[in-house]
Amino acid sequence: xxxxxxxxxxxxxxxxxxxxxxxxxxxxxxxxxxxxxxxxxxxxxxxxxxxxxxxxxxxxxxxxxxxxxxxxxxxxxxxxxxxxxxxxxxxxxxxxxxxxxxxxxxxxxxxxxxxxxxxxxxxxxxxxxxxxxxxxxxxxxxxxxxxxxxx
Length: 151
What we know:
Elements: E1 3-4, E2 10-15, H1 22-25, E3 31-40, E4 43-49, E5 54-56, E6 59-61, H2 68-80, E7 88-97, E8 102-112, E9 125-131, H3 142-147
Parallel strand pairs: 3-8
Antiparallel strand pairs: 1-2, 2-7, 3-4, 3-6, 4-5, 4-9, 7-8
């Protein structure tokens, strides 16, 4: 176990593997989502999730027929209006999620945003911020904060 957040979700493990090997690792739970650690001028992109009422990484559920990479690209753009030309696959995350302690895997990607585009609030993201990890910042999901280290 790496850490547990305040909602009881557990970040169990991280597998730094090659993207082509994803499906060799997910034998005990489904691959359900992709997350993106994005940077611009040495600051990390976070969204304020208006439903959850906290800051988190951009990302979301993999649609049927969609690859984890396609999901990461789509979710980054839908939630933040930003894009990354060369997303890098960082590895697989394994979680135990509440309320039913279900196991899930997620794909983690990272990359540098070259040019900022105007953000527009949407059905999930109320606001975005670029965080330097040094300034005081509250109400960020503990697991997402830890995932910044995998950039």
